[in-house]
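Q: Predict the assembly, please.
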Amino acid sequence: MKTRIVVFPGSNCDADAMHAVRNVLREQDTEFVWHKEGSIGRTVDLVILPGGFSYGDYLRTGAIARFSPVMKDVIRYANAGGMVLGICNGFQVLCESGLLPGVLVRNAGLQFACKEVYLRVENEAPLTQNIPMGTVLKLPIAHGEGNFIADAHVLEELEANGQVIFRYVDRDGNVSQNANPNGSMNNIAGIANKERNVMGLMPHPERACEAMLGSADGLQIFESLRASFSSMNGTRNATPDRAAQLTSSTI
Amino acid sequence: MVLWRHYPYHTLLKHFVYIAIERKEAILDPQGKAIGHALGSLGFSEIENTRVGKLVRLTVDAASPEAARAIAERAAEKLLANPIMETFSVIAINEEPILTAELTQ
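A: Predicted assembly structure:
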């Protein structure tokens, strides 16, 4: 699985993502892409927008990163069906760029939330492919702006289409206000676009891939991404340059 | 009060364009709420509500205030405000930075 991790000025979970994919998942073809690059490269299978504080969170979280040179190519790649995972600040960048609906605003209660939370797997997407629906995962969060909001009709559409992938729940898997760390509408912790190739979540799976870190539940998410990449690319040998093909057909 | 002087059309003038950006009413403003509580405890019982927004000043080279406004509004639509949660408004266009509360439209 050829994975590219975009690094913006202010990204600070890029190395964690690299560790999770290259050392824990053991996917050797994993590289960083500096935000000034005009391209993420050819035949990429997964792009990760990591957590952090891109551009100091100036203006709005993710608002300036969204216009980084590399984002043009990420948007092109996503629109061609390429798999994109945005974690925390990466999720905020995806919302700002319009690849995902809604927006993430300041946590209700103003406090930066840094703790472990429980998430319930709500719907199928590449990042939950290996995980039975309803499973409760334990993952860390660390954000000041994770409060997901969207217009009423957008929210309705998200729910109707099964695009809500993760919800904040208590240890037993119940949705409750107490389990909601930031005030997100409908306890939303992670969503996907309609096509399910673009996914964003506020919790950090890359920080929870080994038991010694308190939870290895995050690894299930990366293993799912790999499994769905493998099944999506069953015909990969016949069409080795999928992204290039998609590019040539879309330009 | 600064009055607009008449310049030939081809002259580009510096315009200081002020854009106010506010969260939509329906969207929670925890910062405004916290400040509102502090004001309340200071005895400002007349202040019913406090909301915090942003003020952006753009220095724009343009032939006229109208042209400067159009450029600033394009910038706001593209980057400065997120229409999902915010609204913006050009609240003043001036030949000089406004240092007092006096706004010239």
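The first strand of chain B starts at residue 13 and ends at 23. The two ends of chain B are 10 Å apart (CA to CA).
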